[in-house]
Amino acid sequence: MRRSTRITTLAAGTAAAAALVVTGLAVGHTPTRATAHEPRKTGVVVAHGADRHPSQTATDWVTYADHVVEVTPVDERDIPPSQEEVDRGEGVILRGVTLRVDKVLWTRSGATQAAPASFDWTAYGWQFTDGDVHNRTEMAGEGQPRIETGHHYVMALEWEAPRCVPGDGELPGRWRGLGSESIIPYDNGVLGEGEFQGRPLQLKAARATALDPGDPDYSLRDEFTGHTAAELADRLIGTPPGQKTQRSLRQADAPAEECS
What we know:
Elements (H helix, E strand, L loop, with lengths): L13 H6 L1 E2 L2 E2 L9 E2 L7 E3 L10 H7 L2 E13 L3 H6 L2 E17 L10 E12 L2 E10 L11 E8 L2 E3 L3 E3 L2 E3 L6 E3 L8 E3 L2 E3 L1 H7 L10 H5 L4 H9 L16 E2 L5
Parallel strand pairs: 4-8
Antiparallel strand pairs: 1-2, 3-4, 5-6, 5-9, 6-7, 7-8, 9-12, 9-13, 10-11, 10-16, 14-15
């Protein structure tokens, strides 16, 4: 069994691609046929994106994350599509989700930003077609939770300081994920159980779909399915950080003060 890690960036304008983030993926307002497909069995449009950082292993998490937290989505609101999408008759409606931090499981030594009590997150919402924004099909990132109210998650977070993007102005500081493997479902106090890719996943099914350790896509979610967040925290505490690779931001980005 193999979980695809092929990186395909969603087509987007400069501002949208720089500003909208879903679990560490740069996400635009306009998915294309090459970057989204609709499995008949689930009726969920699955989108692909580019990971900001490696996120499969404990070493990845302690190298790139500032905090690992238990969270609960407490509110969500639609983010309207662009006028260009409305005029074209198809596009993406994203969601702004407010996440409450229930517990901090791990913090990087030297983290400059304390873990938040709550934070906002931009999540996939729906794809609309046929010129009707109410003609919606749910959308989720490939191989990751959609982030829905009524569920719980464990997330690895990195604080991104405000920065300047030419043509877009200053982007405020925000909490971001690492990549597609930096969010784990956590309903009923059990890792792997809960909402995943827009559908509820019971523990038996989560275990059945977990990859084997020898698979190149094997991740912490596979390893810790059926375990508790405390056990995951113990692993992170005992794992030394690795060497960071170069951040995949646009070369033109600059500190926020350079916008003035």
